[in-house]
Write a structure and sequence with these properties.
alpha+beta; about 140 residues; NUDIX domain-containing protein; disordered C terminus; hydrolase; NUDIX_hydrolase-like_dom_sf; Nucleoside Triphosphate Pyrophosphohydrolase; four-stranded mixed β-sheet; three-stranded antiparallel β-sheet
């Protein structure tokens, strides 16, 4: 089991995603805890390293936990993603291993990892993520 944290940032019906160098799909920004870190500490560190912004501590809220097969890992490897929302200060800019950021709609669901697809579904069902899969398929 791969245990990860993710920052959910939705604006104008789209979610912020990131693509690491040498990867072909987008992920929800975040990462793994280091020894002794709380979820909030790890998430704040990861987002600062990857996207050069500071999450505002008093705004961090748990949104949910999602589990699916891990992309690019041996069969049977699962990833558990604990997702948090938070306000931020600073200017978003890809850094460290992040090659690019993208704001994706629900129609872009096919461009993300399996666990991120569950998050897309969750947000779409709540009316937060716009777009339709029918439109994406050209039907």
């Amino acid at each position: 089991m791969i245990d990860k944290l993710a920052w959910i940032r939705v604006e104008n019906g789209k979610i912020l995603t990131a693509r690491s160098r040498n990867r072909d799909i987008y992920y929800i920004p975040g990462g793994k805890r280091e020894a002794g870190e709380t979820d909030e500490q790890a998430l704040r560190r990861e987002i600062s390293e990857e996207l050069t912004v500071d999450l505002i501590p008093e705004s961090v809220q748990l949104l949910g936990e999602f589990e699916a097969p891990a992309h690019g890992q041996p069969a049977g490897t699962l990833v558990r993603l604990r997702c948090y929302s938070a306000e931020y200060a600073g200017v978003l800019h890809p850094s460290a291993e992040i090659e690019e950021m993208q704001w994706l709609s629900y129609a872009d669901r096919h461009r993300v990892s399996e666990v991120a697809r569950l998050v897309f579904d969750f947000l779409h069902q709540r009316g937060l993520l716009t777009g339709s899969l029918v439109a994406a398929a050209g039907l």
